[in-house]
Amino acid sequence: MPHRLLTLAAALLVSFPSAPARADEAAFASCLAGLRTEAQSKGVSAQTFDTHTAALAPDMAVVGFLDAQPEFVTPIWDYLAGLVDEERVADGRAMLAQWAAVLARVEAEYGVDAATVVAVWGVESNYGRNFGSRPLLGSLSTLSCFGRRQAFFRGEFFTTLKIIQDGHVAPERLTGSWAGAFGHTQFMPSTFVRLAVDFDGDGRRDLVDSVPDALASTANFLKRAGWRSDLPWGFEVSLPPGMALADAGRRNKQPVSAWVARGVKRVDGGALPAGSTPAGLMLPAGEGGPAFLVTRNFDALYSYNAAESYGLAIAHLADRLRGGAPFATPWPTDDPGLSRAERRELQELLIARGHDIGEPDGMIGARTREALKLEQAALGLAADGRAGQRALQALRANARR
Ligand code: CA
């Protein structure tokens, strides 16, 4: 089971009504009273429980997130354009320099290179700039009492109380995603217990306020997920015309030599790993888009969030941090995605046209999409609300300053 739930989809959602109804508050109070006994059987003292649950109120918005279907499925080229943009590459290189000594020790101890560790950090929390703002105890106690995965979330809730009881992270610093992922590396509490490490030697495993602990914990996660220091994650490859693709797929590993015999080559002309290395042929946008040969190290990245698009964002960001080039093969679209800077620009252009969509923060939410639909219709484009290059260029050409 992946260590997280639905965080990719949830990132795209906007707010639900969140004020609890009186009936919800009563049900919550009664549920919490029951959890108090169960918590003690899991090693949470009555004092810890009482101290940290006394002021809790149910946050019903998170129950909405649990059941929500994303109303807009993000194409992989939009997803990658926002996650691996020039800003995140530049910021990541600054982090590689700033934390070079720690990253060298992390690599020596866990066998995961600096660029990979920093790429996970950049994708997970934008290098510590975005932890998520929901108090963990509020989210997890609510999900322990409402909704369809209460048993799972009770485990995470009790574990969070244990983390606080053991003094690893200050309780007021425990905020995160609606589902309870927190800190620089967005670990769930149960993942924290299994895999977080104290790397700065202060006796606490602190993924919120210690960058060394967070970087080492990420490397430990990848090592335990099967990362091998002597392997690349994979490469973008070119395929010979007419190649049969029935056996493509990340999990369908065959020796690199078998792929080479069929005419698969690296797009940059470089050498592939040893012929006996198992590798899968991944086509994340199907035929006609970029193709990748991926090793077990890609599977280790995948295990962080159980999405190929996510694994590819980290893998590609790591390559870019090492000085690698953008993908050679274009995505199969005539409307490529936007960087975060371009998303902010698109929002500013919408604001200039009189739309109240809040601050231009580069997050494309429901309000941005609704405004965009109106302007697309006015400009003679398909009114689908998708923030891509076509919409941006049309707005630029018709800008009102
Ligand atoms: Ca520590």
Bound molecules: calcium ion
> Superfamily at the CATH H level of the domain at 22-58 and 132-182?
Bacterial muramidase
Summed over residues and divided by their number, the pLDDT gives a mean of 93
> Looking at the structure, what is the overall shape?
globular
Helix-and-strand structural type: alpha+beta
Largest sheet: 5 strands, antiparallel
Q: Give the % helix.
A: 40-55%
Roughly how many Å apart are the termini? Answer: 51 Å
Instruction: Give the tally of β-strands.
Output: 7
- Compute the number of helices: 18
Strand content: 5-15%
Query: What is the CATH architecture term of the domain at 22-58 and 132-182?
Result: Orthogonal Bundle
In short:
The chain has helices at 7-10, 22-41, 46-53, 61-67, 76-83, 86-98, 100-110, 114-125, 136-145, 150-165, 189-195, 211-224, 256-261, 296-305, 308-321, 340-352, 366-378, 389-397; strands spanning 134-135, 175-176, 234-238, 249-255, 265-266, 278-282, 291-294. It is of the alpha+beta class and 401 residues long. Among the domains are: 22-58 and 132-182, Orthogonal Bundle (Helicase, Ruva Protein, domain 3); 234-307, no CATH class; 340-399.
Question: What would you say this structure looks like, in words?
Answer:
The protein has 401 residues and is an alpha+beta fold. It binds calcium ion. Calcium ion binds next to loops.
Write out key terms for the chains shown.
single chain, alpha+beta, five-stranded antiparallel sheet, 18 helices, binds calcium ion
